Structure formats: structure tokens, C-alpha cells
Amino acid sequence: MLTTxxxxxxxxxxxxxxxxxxxxxxxxxxxxxxxxFLPVYCHSRRENMExxxxxxxxxxxxxxxxxxxxxxxxxxxxxxxxxxxxxDWTDARKLVVHDDANVSWDEAGKKExxxxxxxxxxxxxxxLLEKAMGHGCPKEEKKVLIPxxxxxxxxxxxxxxxxxxxxxLAAEAIDLKIASDALSRNALTKxxxxxxxxxxxxxxxxxKESSEGVTVRENETVMAMEDExxxxxxxxxxxxxxxxxxxxxxxxxxxxxxxxxxxxxxSILDELLDDEEEExxx
Length: 282
Fold this sequence. Notes:
mainly alpha
């Protein structure tokens, strides 16, 4: 029921922080309830997963601050574990109920699954990079945020504008050298390379679609020309088979041509005999 009720992002953020903070360590009931609820909430609906993506950086910020303020005897879940869980809760491949972004229907009305849409992780990557490049982001927080980039799922089946935005931010982050440790530098390089590969694949697909479209148009033109030629040929045949009626002399000539040489001779002899009989009578 809560998977469709919780729409307030501030409330969701507090629940996630409550799950990880040291204060609930001894409260086994709360930890167990949240350990079941949070993944079910995120994986059940895309809207819920998007909300988790929107609060993920705030959750990390709060937990990092809590870790700095803790007493020595207090213990909290490691930030690596927190990052892994947030990545899992925002991974669209884990969605149980798919929406229009992942489902299509064929001509027969049969449901088909499309490639996973990775916009949620792309938006998370863009927000993370913007935060890491901000002047107010502490060095220790960058060490938690930037390695998270290597764990995000980048796929060609995403919004091209979002891919380009995240790619440009990653390139800017590399140029600014915001990564101070090897792990962060490797993560930046990895996500930058992944997005470059996706952008290249999308460009190739566009070129193929464009060339296929030109080929289809050329084929349609050729077929139209062939049909037109066939129509003209049929019209010529009809004109030959059914000529228009001409003058009386032309009709006689056609009749003579149809009768053949023998019939023409007979006709001439008949006319001569008729002429001789008329002269004798005269």
C-alpha cells in the first residue's frame, strides 16, 4: 500500500536516512520493515524509482555529515554499502512493473519488452557531476560521490539529450580535474567512455535509418516509373487493337489489307466482268 502512497520526496529521504543512521541500529523492527519496504517501493513503480533518484544525493550528503559528527563508539553502515543500495534502488533493470518506456505492442496486440530506459541513472549522473563540480562540495564528499558514477547503468535506449548533457558534464569534470584519487579518476573515465560509445552507436543507427529511408524512397520512385511505363504500354496496345474509325477510303483500304491478295484479285475480276456486261447491253 505504501508503494503508492508515499509521494513526498522529503518523507522518502527521511526514511532512507533513518534506515542507515546509527540511531536505528538497535531498533530491529524499524530496520527490518525498511529493509523490505525500500527496495519494494523502488522496484514496483518507475515513479517511485525516480523519486529515489531525486533524493539519493541528499541522502548521501546527510549520512556523510552524520558520520563526521558521530562519537568514536558509534558505528554506521559504510558509505560504500549505502552507495551500492542507492544504485540498486535506482536501476531501471530491476523494475518489476514496466511502463510505456519499456513496453511496446506489436500489430497482433502482443506485448513486447523494449530495451531498458536508463534516464534515471543519467539524471543521477548529471546531478552528481554538477554537485561534485560545485564550489561547496567538500573533498571527502567527492570521494564518495564520484566513484558512484562507475556503478551507473548507461544504455543507448535513453533520451539523447540527457546522454549528451551527462557526457558534456563528465568531459568538463575531467578537464577540471575534480577527481583527487585514482578510484574517482577511473570512475570518471569509465562513465565518459561509456557515454561516448552510446553516442557513437546512436549516430550510426541514425545514419542507417536515414540511408534506409532514402533507399525506400528510391524504390518507391522506381516502382512508380515502372507502373507508369506499364500503363503506357497497355494504352498503346489498346490503340493498336481498337483503332479509331477513319474515312471511307481508309476503311476500304483496311478491308483490302484484311482480305489478302487472293480476295483482292477476285474483286478486281468481278468489277471488270461487270463493266463488260454493261458495255454489251449498251
